[in-house]
Structure prediction request, 238 residues.
Amino acid sequence: MGIKLERKKKRVFLLTFIYRLSKFPFASKRRKLKLFLDLEWIFDRLSLEYSYKVFSADEHPARIITKKFLLQFIRAEDTVLDLGCNAGYITDMIAEKAKYVVGVDHSESLIEIAKKGVKGNNVEFHCGEAYEFLLSNKKQFDVLILSHILEHLDTPSDFINKFKMFFNYIYIEVPDFDKSYLNHYRKKMGLSLIYSDGDHINEFDRNDLRQLLAGCNIEIVQAEYIYGLQRLWCRVKK
Prediction:
């Protein structure tokens, strides 16, 4: 449940000022809409960035819900590969329950942060390419973690097909293009501020992602759409 409000709301000066300013004929309705969509994108982005500065990793709402979703599927006997593990935030979550977790990232500096910040006998980190690691490694993995990976790739289907043979299950997390109708307004109006991050190549709506996974012979076991993210627990069809 969300929150219950009084019918009469408190006046917010900034809101009143901007709303009244919008009534002035300084531009056409279409130009005003474009301006407001760009401003909304800017402030949404700033709010997201500052949320990670204000909330710790343990209390950030997005990380709490990711942990809750993931740990309902991770089993105590699972060996997990966190591909593109960054500084090991999700690796650390999974290590609370899984038998063994390996984090792999091509950034040496991030791997060093992960090694210092994540401790445990069931965790290890490697700097390098994940596919090369899988070919040279003797461990058998059960689960692949793809958290904020697919949106950075030119051909995500090729990537999934290349890696899926090593795993039984895949966890996928990407930004949700359908998180708001405003994204669809931006798309319809051809605005440039439509991406979640500057280095994203793909922005997936929910149907896009379902079709991508179906084409890779990946079954979605459970999906969740909350806090602007798509979280999917998937099974690799053998």
Q: What stands out?
A: Residues 176 and 229 are 5 Å apart (CA to CA).
